[in-house]
Amino acid sequence: RIKRGKVKFYDKTRGFGFITKDDDKKDVYFSIEDVEKKQKLEAGDTVKFEVEKTQQGTKATRISKIE
Question: How far apart are CA 63 and CA 67, in angstroms?
Answer without folding.
Answer: 13
